[in-house]
Amino acid sequence: MFTHAEVWHGIDRLARHHGLTPSGLARRAGLDPTTFNPSKRITKEDKPRWPSTESLAKILRATETPFSAFVAMMTDEGARIEPPSQRMRCVALDQAHRPALFDQAGFPVGSDWDEIDFPNLDDPHAYALEVHGDGMAPTYRDGDLLIVSPGANIRRHDRILMKPTKGDVVPGLLLRRTAQRIELAPFAEGEDVKRIAVGEVVWLARIVWASQ
Questions:
Q1: Domains of the chain, earliest start first
Q2: Considering only 51-60, 106-115, 132-141, 194-203, which range has the smallest mean pLDDT?
């Protein structure tokens, strides 16, 4: 007999094993993105809500995971295959333009974040951005998770995020960086190289890992 907490723990582990958030796992399985959200795990009457057998079957099929492996993830048997993890802030990439999420140096602040467990990076400021839609295909696709380290050194040809003084956060490949300007190749197919004056850039941050 499995407990409510164990089943949800197994879902979280399955998502993390494939480099996804719970909502990313739901999308991959063709489910509503909110299916596995923490807010859906308890009813308004403060009673446990269980995932349906149909939704479990879909995520196992989508990730090609045997039921026996999922059972191991629900219990301590699955713990031995997991590296140490840290609690990490997470938000949708298309929401990263919101001023309340970052300070002037590009470090995450505030409480308007979800949280995920991720293998330890030894960087307490690292955060995750979840890609929604296929606007950055073929580099990144819907449900991919980008791990960003705002304090990491940035070099030419690194994959980065750039926050201009006006507009949304822009992910891309750093082509060139001088005292006067920054050249960035966007991941979105068909978009031109962006050339922005250094004075018009608020911050840069390096993408250190991505699920693909």
A1: 4-81 (1.10.260), 85-210 (2.10.109.10)
A2: 132-141
Q: Is the dihedral of CA 133, 138, 143, 145 positive or negative?
A: negative
Q: What is the pLDDT of residues 43-79, one digit of tens each?
A: 888 899 999 999 999 999 998 888 888 988 888 654 4
User: Where do runs of H (alpha helix) occur along 64-201?
Assistant: 67-74
Torsions phi, psi for 205 (to 5 deg): -145, 145
Q: Is residue 81's pLDDT more than 50?
A: no
Give the list of residues 6+ apart from residue 46 with CB closer than 8 angstroms, or none. none
Strand residue runs (E) in 41-152: 85-92, 114-119, 127-130, 145-149
Strand order in the sheet with 170-177: 114-119, 85-92, 127-130, 145-149, 201-210, 159-164, 170-177, 181-186, 194-197
Cα–Cα dist 187/172, whole Å:
5
